[in-house]
Amino acid sequence: MSTPSAARIVEQLGNLEVVVCAGSGGVGKTTVSAALGLAMVAELDRRVLVLTVDPARRLATALGLGRMGAEPVPVPAARLRKAGIQPKGELVAAMLDMKSAWDLMVERHAPSRESAERILANRFYQGISNAFVGSQDWMAMETLYELHAGREYDTVVIDTPPSRNALDFLEAPNRLSDFVGARLLSWLAGPSRLGLRAINIAAAPFARMADRLIGAEVLAELAAFVREIQGLYSGVQERAAEVYDLLRSPRTGFVVVTTLEPEPFAEAEFFCARLRDYRMPLRAVAVNRVLPAALSDASGAAAATALVEDRDVAAWMSRELGEQVRPETARRLGEAHLILHRLAERQDRQLARLGSLGRVPVVRLPLAEREVVDIEGLAQLVGWFRDGNG
């Protein structure tokens, strides 16, 4: 079975309903997500939303959008044309608003309007998103699911949260379900069917200490809040199952973004393998900051070796290029090329390993001369997605 052609990756991804760009922090997920969205509207007549959870607002800056929040903002077609992109579709961008996402989740899953209002008004609720590890990942999934269900966009591209572990995104729904239904929360909520006396005896040391530290009134307020939160459990559990169904759907595709540095590369390999375990469709790997393919060329390496090892060749090159390039300079140029050649050969082996994990196309995005910070820089990356390799 042959690997799908990388040259058709924009068409393949653009015809999906959800595209998840995942990877470890610092590999360029936000940039890749934006460039991929641009490539889709340049090639296809589709309405594409790029959703970022990047608090640094890099997507807004790169797309030339001064203000961008939870409300989706269209990227003006005139702005795209000025950057050299002739759009066939429409590009829209939005940024995850954590507070709004939490509020909507409470309102959606609370057993009653009164319960939702009590949760939203509770002071403990204000800090729960910071207390819960993985909150940002879950809210990104929740928002993604709602945007997909709204059917306003043909394709939703999501730039997953910056994280030290890309797997956090996949495990977030289960972690939230565990958090809401945890035994500790049940214990804090008050007496259970085991009986008030048993609970009081078991809890007495903790209760006395908590009373001294935070006061009985605050402890009672915490217990009341926990009881309300537990009312969300059924809805959260059901939504987690729906989110996993969406992520496993043939309408969805994962693009793993990485660089070839040891840590992000190892995590990308692990993430690709785990996607298979989760039965989630890996569609492509985008490798950022790749050296030019020409550096792998054997004939170039042979010429560089001749410059280094044969003084007559270095002298000839010096004569051909003029007095500014002395034989010693020519030899050093050859040495530098050989170092880059060895690096390029190593990166080719790494790229082959990534592609073989899921027999998916690997898109090589070049090491740029400057950081991509504007729409013109994104437009250059669009060309690499169209070509399919570096």
Structure description:
The protein has 390 residues and is of the alpha/beta class. Helices cover 58% and strands 12% of the residues. The chain has helices at residues 9-14, 29-43, 58-62, 77-82, 98-109, 113-121, 128-131, 135-150, 168-180, 183-189, 196-214, 216-230, 233-248, 262-277, 298-309, 311-321, 327-358, 375-387; strands spanning 18-22, 47-52, 73-74, 90-95, 155-159, 252-258, 282-290, 362-366. It has an eight-stranded mixed β-sheet, with helices on both faces. Strand 6 (252-258), helix 14 (262-277) and strand 7 form a beta-alpha-beta unit. Helix 9 (168-180) packs antiparallel against helix 13 and helix 10 packs across helix 12. The two termini are 23 Å apart.
Estimate the strand proportion: 5-15%
The percent of residues in helical segments reads 55-70%
Radius of gyration: 27 Å
Strand count, sense and barrel status of the largest sheet are:
8 strands, mixed
Biggest sheet, strands in spatial order?
A: 3-4-2-5-1-6-7-8
- Tell me the overall shape: elongated
Record field, number of beta strands: 8
**How many angstroms separate the termini?**
23 Å
Order of helices and strands: HEHEHEHEHHHHEHHHHHEHEHHHEH
Taking pLDDT < 50 over at least 5 consecutive residues as the criterion, the unreliable ranges are 192-202, 209-214
